[in-house]
Amino acid sequence: MAVGELDRAMQFLAKLPGLGPRSARRAILHLMKRRDSLMLPLAEALAAAARSVRPCTTCGNLDTVDPCGICSDPRRDPQAICVVEDVADVWALERAVAFKGRYHVIGGVLSALDGIGPGDLNVDGLVLRAADPAVNEVILAMNATVDGQTTAHYLADRLASTGVKVSRLAHGVPVGGELDYLDDGTLAQALRARQAL
Ligand SMILES: [Zn+2]
User: Fold this and answer.
1) Structural domains of the chain in order of their starting residue, each with its CATH number
2) Distance from residue 116's CA to the centre of ligand 1 (Å)
3) Which pLDDT score is estimated for 106?
4) CA of residue 114 to ligand 1 center, whole Å
5) pLDDT tens across 4-32, in order?
6) Which residue(s) pair with 196 in the sheet?
7) How many whole angstroms separate alpha carbon 121 and alpha carbon 193?
8) Cα Rg, the chain, nearest whole Å
9) Which of 104, 107, 145, 160 to pair with 88, CA 20 to 30 A apart?
10) DSSP H/E element including 55
11) Could you tell me the distance, in angstroms and rounded to a whole number, from the CA of residue 157 to the centre of ligand 1?
């Protein structure tokens, strides 16, 4: 039985996606062996990130400033908004250097199974932004999963009233595929070959 401090840390680690109690135990023991080179710097980095990083109130991207660096960058094309499920997808598209417009993170996908409905996602904010006359295209870059595609259709319906052009990624995205796992070339190609909805 670990001492209370380690037990507490393990219980938090075990809540992370992909980690269970067993992985959490291994992680905490690994950290203890590298107390000065890894554990303390990690704890400080996490505390600093928790203090200073917030979701952008415009697009949902994470940054230390609000609006975020992408929303406030005058070199980004204000006419195109790329809609993604999560911030990890913004990072993937930025790594691929494939898109010069701005983003909108809706924060997940519709899922009857997980009880996630439209009210749980940042859809109203998207419709509001799409209605701006300066915006003329919304690209739906959802993952090629069943829930991702259901969400894309729902968003296309909601956006219809704004009259904005709506497109989605081409099927360079493999069925079941998640953007974050694609190589940069495939992702860039899927974006270039996007199709009107
Ligand atoms: Zn932003």
Assistant:
1) 4-52 (1.10.8.420), 62-168 (3.40.1360.10)
2) 23
3) 97
4) 27
5) 999 999 999 999 989 999 999 999 999 99
6) 167
7) 27
8) 20
9) 160
10) strand 54-55
11) 24
**Per the structure block, which two tokens stand in for 17?**
């996606």
DSSP 78: T
What DSSP state is assigned to residue 136? Answer: -
pLDDT tens digits along 112-138: 888 999 999 999 999 999 999 999 999
CA of 71 to the centre of ligand 1 (A): 4
SS3 26: helix
Token digits of residue 122: 């940042």
- How far is the centre of ligand 1, averaged over its atoms, from the C-alpha of 68 (Å)? 4
Neighbours of ion ligand 1 (CB under 5 A): 56, 58-59, 61, 67-68, 71
CA of residue 29 to ligand 1 center, whole Å: 38
Cα 122 to ligand 1 centroid, rounded to whole Å? 13
Q: Which residue has the tokens 């598209």?
A: 93
- This prediction's pTM: 0.82
Instruction: Tell the residue number behind the tokens 């979701």, with chain if given.
Output: 55
Instruction: State the distance from the centre of ligand 1 to the C-alpha of 66, rounded, in angstroms.
Output: 7
Between the CA of 58 and the centroid of ligand 1 the distance, in Å, is: 5
pLDDT computed for residue 186 by the predictor: 75
